[in-house]
Design brief:
Elements lengths: L1 H19 L13 H10 L1 H13 L3 H15 L6 H21 L5 H29 L2 H16 L1 H23 L4 H28 L22 H23 L9 H28 L1
Length: about 290
């Protein structure tokens, strides 16, 4: 039911968006070598910053693998992971609304870097509440931890929305310098960063959780016949640290490449203006060629 509802809402918003978008881009029918587009993207320093950022952010996914194990350790039942995921999801939705309001006062670069700092601080607070729950016990600390996950979710508003804004701005910067619309090449190259990070996450998370290799951090005792075993206090705290502090650290690291990002404010507006003029000139050139032909 939820999947059908999401599909219906996404289709409706997509159609509404298509009606609202007025911009038209003059594409060239000439065939181009796709690898040449990749090379142009890799020469752009802002695109490189985006690639590095997405690579670093992808390591946050390690925390998602720890969710059910943390629910078992903290709440006594892995099926109670919903109590951890739901506040974060609600916080994400609220954060996406908040970002739209904050963009009226701050630029995308400022908000993205601030969200990295905020992510680490909010996750540190959540770690503190979880630590107290493990060491002192009590439902109050469990409730505090779950409530703080809502605040953790707020930063996903920036990490979900702002990268698409960066891609659009970088695409215009590329178009201005190359006279080519490289949106597909840009999206592909940026995806490489998160894809490589995802491969490393897939190979590392089980070693981080269970140990047995060079990484023996959490040393979680695996379930036996679907029965989750009691863990040591040090294991519980290490698991909590990966779920909270690890996630916050990688979000902060993912925002740092944007310290050198300059496609904001007047510079961004000027690039957009020049791109529009360039498109008009290219369209006029093609009309002349058609007329002469």
């Amino acid at each position: 039911m939820s999947a059908a509802l999401c599909a219906a809402v996404s289709s409706l918003t997509l159609m509404l968006g298509m009606r609202q978008i007025k911009e038209r881009i003059a594409y060239s029918p000439k065939r181009v070598q796709p690898l040449a587009g990749f090379a142009e993207v890799l020469k752009n320093r802002y695109a490189l910053a985006m690639i590095v950022s997405e690579f670093l952010k992808s390591f946050r996914r390690i925390a998602s693998y720890m969710g059910t194990f943390l629910a078992a350790a903290l709440l006594g039942d892995p099926t109670k992971f919903l109590l951890l995921g739901l506040p974060t999801g609600i916080g994400t939705a609220v954060g996406m609304l908040a970002i739209n309001l904050l963009l009226k006062r701050f630029n995308s670069k400022q908000l993205y870097i601030a969200s990295g700092v905020y992510s680490l601080l909010s996750n540190a607070c959540a770690f503190g509440a979880g630590y107290m729950s493990f060491t002192r016990g009590g439902a109050a600390w469990q409730a505090a931890f779950i409530a703080l996950l809502f605040l953790v979710g707020l930063q996903y508003g920036a990490s979900n929305l702002l990268p698409d804004m960066f891609k659009a701005d970088i695409c215009e910067d590329l178009e201005l310098h190359t006279r080519k619309r490289l949106d597909a090449s840009l999206a592909f190259v940026i995806t490489i960063g998160s894809f490589l990070g995802g491969l490393l996450v897939e190979g590392l998370w089980s070693q981080i959780l269970y140990g047995g290799g060079r990484i023996n951090f959490i040393q979680y005792k695996p379930p036996v016949e679907d029965v989750y075993l009691e863990q040591t206090l040090s294991t519980k705290i290490a698991l909590l640290a990966v779920y909270t502090l690890g996630q916050g650290c990688f979000m902060l690291l993912g925002s740092l490449p944007f310290l050198l990002y300059r496609l904001t404010g007047a510079r961004k507006a000027e690039i957009h203006r020049r791109v529009l003029l360039q498109r008009e000139a290219i369209a006029a050139e093609r009309e002349i060629v058609k007329t002469e032909g």
